[in-house]
């Protein structure tokens, strides 16, 4: 395991690293997830050339620290991740980011362009995830006030997301989980979709076949490769790891 101090409190981001050639590949998890269980099979897949791979957890999630005095916005997540990558000696990396992690990666590429040479979004959030109490993910979490989520809302979310997602979500700091969901619901300025379209690097968006991102045509027109993965759901890397690895082999140098 590797780590780097990324916050004045001394809080550390941690990651599992697989050895290989440069440039590095950085794998970023979604809301309430952790990178190693989601990406380990794909990062070591024989279809992929073995690059140095960092399976990294954002502050507040998985094996990284949970500082109380961290804002847990998309922007602060991106800046903390940038600090970890610099301390790891990473530059010009390929970043593969799932769901909420895709939103963080878009902000990272916009604010710290020297760190990212290629961006692959995996069914990522491109638009604000509006609060909605009946939803299991970020919108459901953001529908609570922070006080209500910390006192009882997390138990209701636990029941809605089911045991598989909760197995990773239970490792998250509840305050950080809620604040991240609220930031995801609010979106960014300029909007995440606009930031993505304006990036000058190779970009791709992987999605379950039959469920393309909204306004996929405008993404393609701005140079984003939009790729459907058959027989997969939101967790593409878990549902169809071989097809996911094949797509990465096609998209990345």
TrEMBL record:
Limits of the AB hydrolase-1 domain: 26-128
Keywords, in A-Z order: Hydrolase
Keyword Hydrolase: yes
Name the UniProt record assigns to this protein: Pimeloyl-ACP methyl ester carboxylesterase
Keyword Ligase annotated: no
Superkingdom in the source lineage: Bacteria
InterPro entries documented for this protein: AB_hydrolase_1 (IPR000073), AB_hydrolase_fold (IPR029058), AB_hydrolase_sf (IPR050266)
SUPFAM superfamilies documented for this protein: alpha/beta-Hydrolases
Organism: Nonomuraea angiospora
């Amino acid at each position: 395991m590797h780590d780097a101090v990324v916050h004045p409190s001394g809080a550390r981001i941690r990651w599992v690293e697989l050895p290989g050639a440069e440039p590095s590949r950085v794998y970023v998890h979604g809301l309430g997830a952790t990178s190693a269980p989601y990406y380990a099979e794909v990062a070591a897949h024989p279809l992929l050339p073995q690059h140095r791979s960092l399976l990294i957890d954002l502050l507040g999630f998985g094996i990284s620290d949970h500082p109380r005095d961290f804002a847990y916005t998309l922007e602060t997540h991106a800046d903390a991740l940038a600090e970890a990558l610099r301390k790891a000696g990473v530059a010009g990396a390929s970043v593969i980011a799932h769901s909420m992690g895709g939103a963080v990666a878009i902000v990272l590429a916009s604010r710290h362009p020297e760190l990212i040479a290629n961006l692959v979004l995996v069914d990522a959030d491109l638009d604000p995830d509006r609060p909605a109490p009946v939803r299991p993910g970020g919108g459901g979490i953001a529908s609570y006030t922070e006080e209500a989520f910390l006192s009882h809302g997390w138990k209701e979310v636990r029941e809605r997301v089911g045991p598989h997602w909760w197995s990773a979500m239970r490792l998250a700091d509840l305050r950080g989980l809620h604040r991240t969901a609220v930031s995801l619901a609010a979106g960014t300025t300029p909007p995440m979709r606009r930031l993505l379209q304006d990036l000058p690097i190779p970009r791709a968006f992987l999605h379950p076949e039959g469920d393309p991102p909204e306004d996929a045509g405008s993404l393609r027109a701005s140079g984003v490769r939009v790729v459907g993965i058959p027989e997969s759901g939101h967790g593409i890397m878990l549902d169809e790891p071989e097809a996911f690895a094949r797509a990465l082999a096609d998209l990345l140098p």
